[in-house]
Amino acid sequence: MSGRVRGSAGLVVVGAGVAGLRTVQGVRREGYDGPITLIGAEAHLPYDRPPLSKQVLTGELGSAPVAYHDREYFQDLGVTVLTGTRVDSVDVQARTLAVQFEGSDVREHIPFAALVVATGARPRRLPCTVPPQGVHVVRTCDDAAALYEELLATPTVIVIGGGFIGAEVASSARTLGLDVTVLEAGRFPMRRALGPVIAELLSGLHELNGVTLRCGSSVSGFLGVDRVEGVLLDDGTAIEAGLVVVGIGVVPDVDWLTGSGLSLGDGLICDEFLRAGSETVLGVGDAASCPNMAIGGRRVRSQQWTTAGDQGTHAARVLTHGTEIAGPFSHDMYFWSDQYGVKIQGSGDLSGDVEVVEARPDLSRLVTAYRNGDLVRGAVTVNAPKQFRRLRKMIGTEDPWRGVVEFTSAPAGYSGGEVR
């Protein structure tokens, strides 16, 4: 293929999700007035992804992506947006990207003075052969639109994976009145994210809402040839369904960085300032692994929408003001999930001892705190925004736990105490 160089060197952000968007907005807000290019693999402008597994699948929103801004906004911001563009490789020393535009076999080269990697992640796939029709993942707006059309025509659904995406898809399918089975390979859904105690509690949401939950179930294959007819479990059990959704996690989308000299592991390896071993290359969002000062400097590859956005904002400060002013990245890893009509909220380090402060048998309300001795280090609640805000403010402080929770005789249907 022939190649040519496009544009002048400036800031180039690869990845048009919330992390990439916040980066370009942030550098302009911080005073950078040079060229900016935002590159996205999808044909769409940056759009809101959290509704894809929820309101899009229930029909509350249309199938068209909900764009954050139109093209005029980016023009006014002085940002060149290249949609439908695949980045093949990067030459860090020469500071150029090799890209291909949708529908073109010509490789072009884009120079950069600084590069931000914000390519996110792609859905993990099962190793078994998949029939050509009826097996879906949910990562892009096109994925969600295609799945919604099939949900309207299929009465039985199997969701493989009981994490947040799997649970939200199952909830959406139940809202449409479908027969739903969730298959989870672990002992409880969301155990890795929430720990065993709270994961076991929240697993009850599935059965309380008419969903069949099967834990310890691994899929060894699919039934059907031209179209999926169900799944085969590793114990030989066959479960029939007309539609399958695979939600078994994601892998960082960093293959294009192979051979660049940048350090790769579980994503692009970055330092506490989000730098990828270079003053001019930074990583943000689901593609980046970096220390987080809010959880003691532990290295994580966060997959929260809020963390990704804040990393973009922080990278903008590092690029425009340097590390001494920007400081290391710190975020309490706040997340939320809407499932079966309840709102789950969480933040902080969820690996400590768990205190169940308040719990209703129907899980319409739950307040829990994760502690290190007398100190609050994390919190997860269900339908308790006031209590969650109170606990969230304590995360990372030296305020004693005993000053927050007053244990009393709980009303009928409750256990534990109450966050004041």
Average per-residue pLDDT, rounded, comes to 91
Number of helices: 10
> Would you tell me the structural class of the helices and strands?
alpha/beta
Coarse shape: globular
Q: What's the β-strand tally?
A: 30
Which residues sit in consecutive blocks of at least 5 with pLDDT less than 50? 1-5, 406-420
> Approximately how much beta-strand content do the residues carry?
25-35%
Key phrases:
420 residues, five-stranded parallel β-sheet, 10 helices, 22% helix, 31% strand, disordered C terminus
Write a structural description.
The chain is of the alpha/beta class and 420 residues long. Helix content is 22%, strand content 31%. The chain has helices at residues 18-29, 55-58, 71-77, 141-151, 164-175, 191-194, 196-208, 305-321, 323-326, 385-394; strands at 3-5, 11-14, 36-39, 79-82, 85-91, 96-101, 107-111, 114-117, 121-123, 135-136, 156-160, 179-184, 212-215, 219-223, 230-233, 238-240, 243-246, 250-252, 264-265, 267-269, 281-283, 288-292, 298-300, 335-339, 342-348, 353-359, 366-372, 375-382, 405-406, 418-419. Strands 4-3-2-8-21 form a five-stranded parallel β-sheet. Strands 10-17-11-12-13 form a five-stranded parallel β-sheet, with helices on one face. A hairpin with a 2-residue loop joins β27 and β28. α1 packs parallel to α8 (305-321). The longest helix is centred in the C-terminal third of the chain and has 17 residues, at 305-321. The model is unreliable at 1-5 and 406-420 (pLDDT under 50).
